[in-house]
């Protein structure tokens, strides 16, 4: 796949208007004795109160880790901007009694990759920094505490991956703090591993050790 082909796939995915059409993963999930309904919103039709709730949930769940990570820190303004990008997509999980359970924020984007990560018969360029592929990137997966460890997060990830395959994304990718051992264990159980572009894979060890996060990925190609 050429870089231009990848950009066309990302553009096509971003311009779609019914991203879940044809997906087989259920948009309902039973937990806490009541059904959870999962709804997909683009940024333009996401109600403002849900956007604010999602931001607040990220801050409640991750603020301490951001503060502890000296290479990132926390900024309300920066996080809100990140969660308000043009092509932001939100899977919102809500219980039948109206209680908000959690969300997954993702985008279709072009991302760098290491040629060793994707095997093909094509010649790879020596300038690997210019190599990019289309991916579905999970920027946030956050659950309210009463809905954690009940399988809902894994269910949201399955929906994400199916949407990624539907639009021919090469990988599902995400970023996780090294200190977040529970999240790392969770993603590894789902088949994710440290990606070739993660700091620990391509930076000198001393420099990589100063970076607080790793980038994980899972191949979505049907022929993988």
Structural description of this entry:
The chain is α+β, with helices and mostly antiparallel strands. It has a single domain (3-117, 130-219), classed as Aminopeptidase, CATH 3.40.630.30. The protein has helices at 3-15, 48-68, 76-82, 152-166, 181-189, 199-202, 205-209, and strands at residues 28-31, 34-42, 89-95, 100-112, 132-143, 171-177, 193-194, 213-219. An 8-stranded mixed beta sheet has the order 1-2-3-4-5-6-8-7, sandwiched between helices. Helix 4 (152-166) links the parallel strand 5 (132-143) and strand 6 (171-177). Mean pLDDT is 92; it is low at 118-129.
Q: What sequence of helices (H) and strands (E) makes up the elements?
A: HEEHHEEEHEHEHHE
Largest sheet: 8 strands, mixed
Report, as a whole number of angstroms, the end-to-end distance: 15 Å
Query: What are the segments in which pLDDT stays under 50 over at least 5 consecutive residues?
Result: 118-129
What level of helicity do the residues show? 25-40%
Strand order of the largest sheet: 1-2-3-4-5-6-8-7
Q: How would you classify the helix and strand content by structural class? A: alpha+beta
């Amino acid at each position: 796949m050429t870089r231009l082909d990848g950009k066309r796939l990302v553009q096509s995915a971003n311009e779609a208007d019914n991203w879940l059409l044809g997906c087989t993963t259920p948009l309902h999930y039973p937990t806490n004795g009541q059904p959870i309904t999962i709804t997909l919103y683009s940024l333009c039709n996401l109600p403002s109160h849900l956007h604010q709730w999602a931001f607040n949930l990220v801050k409640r769940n991750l603020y301490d880790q951001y503060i502890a990570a000296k290479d990132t820190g926390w900024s309300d303004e920066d996080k809100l901007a990140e969660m308000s990008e043009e092509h932001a997509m939100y899977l919102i999980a809500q219980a039948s009694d109206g209680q908000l359970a959690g969300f997954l924020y993702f985008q279709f984007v072009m991302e760098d990759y290491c040629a060793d990560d994707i095997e093909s018969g094509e010649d790879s360029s020596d300038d690997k920094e210019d190599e990019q592929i289309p991916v579905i990137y999970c920027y946030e997966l956050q659950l309210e505490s009463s809905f954690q460890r009940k399988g809902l997060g894994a269910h949201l990830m399955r929906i994400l991956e199916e949407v990624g395959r539907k639009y021919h994304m090469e990988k599902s990718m995400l970023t996780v703090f090294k200190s977040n051992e529970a999240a790392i264990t969770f993603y590894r159980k789902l088949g994710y591993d440290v990606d070739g572009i993660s700091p620990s894979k391509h930076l000198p060890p001393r420099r990589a050790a100063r970076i607080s996060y790793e980038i994980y990925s899972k191949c979505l190609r049907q022929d993988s």
